[in-house]
Design goal:
- A hairpin with a 2-residue loop joins strand 7 (about 185-190) and strand 8 (about 195-200).
- Helix content is about 35%, strand content about 25%.
- The chain has helices spanning about 10-20, 25-35, 70, 85, 100-105, 155-160, 165-180, 205-215, 215-220, 265-280, 315-335, and strands at about 40-45, 55-60, 105-115, 120-125, 135, 140-150, 185-190, 195-200, 225-230, 235-240, 250-255, 260, 285-290, 295-300, 310.
- About 40% of the residues are buried.
- It binds adenosine-5'-diphosphate and magnesium ion.
- Magnesium ion binds near residues 29, 32 and 93.
- It comes from Alteromonas halophila.
- Belongs to the DNA mismatch repair MutL/HexB family.
- One of its GO terms (biological process) is mismatch repair.
- This is DNA mismatch repair protein MutL.
């Protein structure tokens, strides 16, 4: 067999396998794009767990008519232009892969109007088999992306979709993580036309109000708060006390430089602290924000950016563990009884 370049559609579909695992990954990519576009309000409407439709509307800076098609192409990004940018990345996106991937496995309509453009334009493509079609449209400032019939042309992928309920739970999880890290953005989520989550904007420095809205008032009322700085690393944490320990891990939220993570190192450090302080065996509940210099962390480990790699992972681990441990031990006296195990 001779070597051939993959056709662009096939290349995009292969990449989609990594970026677009399920409807929730589409929701994550689209919301992150809206945040990068400076939106202060994002509305997400889901039909049938995202199997049928995922629609997102934002009031961000929009995409100019002559860039609509480019936005849907692979490796097209407005966010980085050289390796140096990649090493100090602050935007959520940078791979220029999401829209190309999503549009290769769905029927995608992108409608947008930048503030300085007098009318809106719409691009439509079906699995990228056909050319992108551009039409004039009516739309306020900002962008709407409508993703219908996800995986309609990749039956092997479609087979792996779970029930509507399960897929929607994953979407809600993504939505909650983003809501926690971006308190100053108004975020609304509906499912089958019913409002499910409404998070009005709060001041960036009033994180606890957003946490109360997302995780629950009981959690925030009982949480132990700590903030620690050490050698350019900052940890801000709300730590569940024994009254809100859970049997599942659904209340464990960690963020690195504003990005939601399910990072093993962070989880391990926190669990170790709980175990040392309280001998806890159940799942602790926590909301933890870690800030490090972008140069000390590599976010380009996985296409979906779930994991990071720290330059000094041991240091980061021990810093988190010690900070959490100190906070738990400090408050033990105040809480009185300590853990009931
Ligand atoms: P990336 O986010 O990695 O740059 P994407 O494929 O997600 O790649 O998006 C491609 C480009 O399309 C972005 O760099 C951005 O310029 C533009 N874009 C995507 N979504 C939006 C949006 N909601 N508002 C404004 N511009 C957007
Ligand atoms: Mg993106």
């Amino acid at each position: 067999m001779s070597i051939k370049l993959l056709a662009p559609q096939l290349a995009n579909q292969i990449a989609a396998g990594e970026v677009v695992e399920r409807p929730a990954s589409v929701v994550k990519e689209l919301i992150e794009n809206s945040i990068d576009a400076g939106a202060s309000r994002i509305d997400v409407d889901i039909e049938r767990g995202g199997h049928k439709r995922i629609r997102l509307r934002d009031n961000g800076k929009g995409i100019a008519k002559d860039e609509l098609e480019l936005a849907l192409s692979r490796h097209a990004t407005s966010k980085i232009s050289n390796l140096d940018d990649l090493e100090s990345i602050l935007s959520l996106g940078f791979r220029g892969e999401a829209l190309a991937s999503i549009s290769s496995v769905s029927r995608l309509t992108l409608t947008s109007r930048p503030r300085e453009q007098s009318e809106a334009w719409q691009a439509h493509c079906e699995g990228r088999e056909m050319q992108v079609k551009l039409n004039p449209a009516a739309h306020p400032d900002g962008t709407t992306i409508d993703v219908a019939d996800l995986f309609y042309n990749t039956p092997a992928r479609r087979k792996f979709l779970r029930t509507e309920k399960t897929e929607f739970q994953h979407i809600e999880d993504v939505f909650k993580r983003i809501a926690l890290s971006h308190p100053s953005i108004t975020l609304n989520l509906t499912h089958n036309d019913k409002p499910v989550r409404r998070f009005p904007a709060v001041a960036q420095d009033n994180r606890s109000r957003r946490i109360a809205a997302v995780v629950g008032k009981k959690f925030i009322d009982n949480a132990i708060y700590t903030q620690v700085d050490y050698e350019g690393i900052t940890l801000e944490a709300w730590l569940g006390n024994e009254q809100v320990l859970r049997s599942s891990s659904d209340c464990q939220f960690s963020f690195v430089n504003g990005r939601g993570m399910r990072d093993k190192l962070i989880l391990h450090a926190i669990r170790q602290a709980y175990e040392s302080a309280w001998g806890v065996i159940e799942q602790p509940a926590f909301v933890v924000f870690l800030s490090v210099s972008p140069r000390d962390v590599d976010v380009n480990v996985h296409p979906a950016k779930h994991e990071v790699r720290f330059q000094q992972s041991r240091l980061v681990h021990d810093f988190i563990c010690k900070s959490v441990l100190d906070a738990l031990i400090d408050t033990q006296g105040e809480l009185g009884a300590g853990p009931v195990i």
